[in-house]
Design brief:
336 residues; mainly alpha; three-stranded mixed beta sheet; 3 strands; 64% helix
Length: 336
């Protein structure tokens, strides 16, 4: 939201250096919200004084106090030096508007980490489901895997959001597919959430098709991409996600391939432009043709994803344990 706001209205560097009380309050609320998330994950329902990490044996309130008080103290009493650091590292300079890369990726990593800790400690998730095989126990590796999925999915949707209606249509397909898959597996609440989300995006898409009257921006693309990743992890359909979101994967890979080629091949390109939807535009397909053809590809792979997601594991399927992880400590997913 902050990034899209700055992109629209711009920023006054002098005002940021002076940082008004209102802006300080805004960021203070952000710090408190992050702290509340940490408390919610690690604390018992009755008290915030429980141990945050049992192995540390440190009262939770001490760590929470440090997390809250130190940033707030610097924010309100640090003066212009702190404001200059904020401007330098968190805002793009010159003609470019919006947040810099550091706060964007840091925010995604933090959100992903909070979600990963919730899934690992509270939901006791430590394995991934492999269709036609069973469960693969990965232990603590579930935490970095969760973070990677959230960051990758959010950025993939954001990269795809470059043509009118492209990301919106593909998101409707993806959420509807997971909604159908959840319904067929008896996960009715999750299915309802997917259906509502798909309906809301469809309403947005009605006004986003060419010529677009509304734009998704980072506010929509990052949030919806992250939500898609969370749904896949909730349903233990991690390996179905690349099929349901096949076009998102291809779009992200096209950017990675293009940047890698330019860096290691002396500036040579693989595509005329990246992401790949701009490559097809450069081939003079036309914006609407590119969008609709990618929608068609998305529908076919989403249908394949539903088929794979409904796969029945062998009756003898067990939990496989990686040699360097050790024995299982948590039960397999309660959703399947």
């Amino acid at each position: 939201i902050v990034d899209d706001y700055i992109n629209i209205v711009g920023i006054d560097e002098q005002k940021i250096r002076e940082m008004s009380p209102t802006m300080k309050l805004f960021f203070a609320l952000g710090i408190l919200a992050i702290t509340a998330g940490i408390v919610f994950i690690f604390s018992s329902p009755l008290s915030i004084y429980s141990d945050i990490v049992l192995y540390l044996g440190v009262p939770g309130f001490l760590i929470i106090a440090a997390i809250v008080l130190v940033p707030l103290f610097l924010l309100f009493f640090g003066g212009r030096p702190v404001n200059d650091i904020f401007l330098r590292f968190f805002m793009n300079q010159g003609a470019r508007k919006g947040l810099a890369v550091l706060p964007k990726i840091s925010s995604l990593l933090l959100i992903g980490l909070l979600g990963a800790l919730w899934f690992y400690f509270k939901l006791e998730r430590d394995s991934i489901h492999i269709p036609y095989f069973g469960f693969l126990y990965i232990g603590w590796l579930y935490i970095p895997l969760f973070v990677f999925i959230i960051v990758a999915t959010a950025n993939a949707v954001n990269v795809t959001d470059g043509l009118d209606g492209l990301a919106g249509g593909l998101l409707v397909i993806a959420f509807a597919s997971f909604g159908l898959l959840a319904y067929l597996k008896g996960l009715y609440i999750l299915s309802g959430f997917c259906a509502v989300t798909a309906g809301a995006i469809a309403a947005f898409l009605w006004h986003n098709v060419p010529p677009a009257l509304f734009y998704m921006g980072d506010t929509g693309a990052l949030a919806l991409g992250g939500a898609l990743g969370v749904i896949a992890l909730l349903m233990d359909q991690l390996l179905v996600l690349p099929l349901v979101g096949f076009v998102f994967v291809v779009e992200m890979l096209s950017v990675i391939i293009q940047l890698t080629s330019k860096k290691f091949r002396g500036g040579k390109k693989v595509f005329k432009a990246a992401p790949i939807h701009h490559h097809f535009e450069a081939l003079e397909w036309g914006e609407s043709k590119v969008t609709m053809r990618l929608w068609i590809i998305g529908v076919f792979f989403a249908f394949l994803g539903i088929i794979v997601g409904l796969a029945h594991d062998p009756a003898s399927a067990n939990i496989m344990v990686l040699p360097f992880i050790g024995n299982t400590t948590h039960a397999a997913s309660p959703l399947l």
